[in-house]
Amino acid sequence: MKKLPLGKYLKTTKYAFSNYLARENIYPFYASFKVTHKCSLKCSFCNVWMEKTPDLSKENVFKILDNISNSSIVVLSLEGGDPLVRKDLGEILQYAHKKPFYLFFTTNGHLIDKRPMEEYGKHIDYLHISIDEGHENLDFFNRLEEFQSFGPEICIQMVVTKDTLSALEEKVKRIYEVGARTVVMPACHLEGTDDYYPDPGKFREEIIRLKKKYPNIITTPKGFLDNINKPHGCSTSSIIVDSDGGLFYPCRTIGQRLYNFTEGSFMDFLKTDTAKQARQDMKKCEQRCGWYQYFATDVFASPISIVSSLSPYLFK
């Protein structure tokens, strides 16, 4: 994993302290950027492939990366759809790699054999490969050693439904055997899909059990497991940028497109009355959707949660 400039760490500390004083997550530290909605799959629990939001040109993608690099964001995840469908992905990764944030990359893996993954891997800090029943690629568990040869740290991303929770341990065991890591998340109920969301109490119980049985493998933080079982546990400590640069704020569930990353400073937007009202609206939301990103990232505000979340990376 690359080292960020000292100034970035100092600014991140300043923004974290500002959030603490304000008692709200004004400044987010994690962002996912859906560089495309295009995907070779039509997962039953996903609605991204249903949307017709256009992709930006490479030049406008660079504008977004510049905007993010000048913000409080310290971790950026490039996602989709499947970002591997973009033919200009190599150039995007090279550009993003030079920016002062850690770069995650998520793919369903169906195009891995058709792309120069070892070359891409030179510009990625953490490679997330989604492998589960919904992505129709369980045979990829036989290729984990091969995936580890791509270069970056490998993390297997698994979406669990109420029908597949009982089959989770077999997958975790395989990941444990090869010394990889996994982030496990529930299939939240998205608009236009059937409800596959597992019981949050049972999900929490099973993940905690597997964390103990297979130590330092599951990166899903305990704070997330606690948050999804609270009346309200999400926050604006993370954001999702759509494929056209649009931002649903405060979140993808109840948010409106209040800002576009190709226009103006994101940090200036966060200080507006519009953004502040959106954050207040999030605090009043009672949906308890379980969207991993919104319920997980705020645990990094607690030193205890940080250790719990990072232990799979620190003690392997």
Can you identify the CATH superfamily? Aldolase class I
Number of strands: 9
Strand order of the largest sheet: 6-5-4-3-2-1-7
For this structure, the CATH topology is TIM Barrel
The proportion of strand residues reads: 15-25%
Radius of gyration: 18 Å
SSE order, one letter for each helix or strand = HEHEHEHEHEHEHHEEEHHHH
User: What would you call the shape?
Assistant: globular
Helix content: 25-40%
| Structural class assignment | alpha/beta
The CATH class: Alpha Beta
Written account of the structure:
- By secondary structure, the chain is an alpha/beta fold.
- The chain has one domain: Alpha-Beta Barrel (TIM Barrel).
- It has twelve helices and nine strands.
- It has helices at 6-22, 58-69, 89-97, 117-121, 144-148, 168-178, 200-213, 222-227, 266-270, 273-284, 292-296, 303-314; strands spanning 30-34, 75-79, 102-107, 126-130, 153-160, 181-186, 238-241, 246-249, 256-260.
- A seven-stranded parallel beta sheet has the order 6-5-4-3-2-1-7. The chain has a two-stranded antiparallel ribbon with strand order 8-9.
- The longest helix has 17 residues, at 6-22.
- The relative contact order is 0.14.
Quick gist of this model?
The protein is built from twelve helices and nine strands.
Question: Secondary structure elements and their pairing?
Answer:
Blueprint: H1 6-22, E1 30-34, H2 58-69, E2 75-79, H3 89-97, E3 102-107, H4 117-121, E4 126-130, H5 144-148, E5 153-160, H6 168-178, E6 181-186, H7 200-213, H8 222-227, E7 238-241, E8 246-249, E9 256-260, H9 266-270, H10 273-284, H11 292-296, H12 303-314
Parallel strand pairs: 1-2, 1-7, 2-3, 3-4, 4-5, 5-6
Antiparallel strand pairs: 8-9
